Amino acid sequence: MLQANTGLQGTQNVMLIKLFLAFTLIPALEIYLLIKVGGVIGALNTFAIILLTGAAGSYLAKMEGFRTFMKIQASLQQGIMPAEEMIDALIILVAGLLLLTPGFLTDVAGLLLLIPPIRFHFKRYLRKKFNQWIAGGSGGGGIHISYMG
Question: What pTM does this model have?
């Protein structure tokens, strides 16, 4: 019998709490900020800022995505696996989704992820976390497969 122990038993509750916070705390903060900013500069100006950041962010995401696509093509033509560029493309996709989400926090996060030096450091952070997860450290539990005969 093949048994997979992903270490999720101890971390399911932690992940559930993180997801709960991400899907309740962030939208609540966004609503709070929208109300506060709207109270200071007016509802129409707040709405205009949200539309402008969304449009500008979409344009930047398109440009960065196109640039990354060109790098992927160049790597493939040289016979090189475009692993870094594929991670860039995924991060740019996430940045675009954040920019399409109404709110100031998500717009700032999306715009920051579109800046290549910041994206580079974010990739390093993700790689470190991924390596920890694979190694079984940092509470991720790792992936362990054992054969039970």
Answer: 0.75
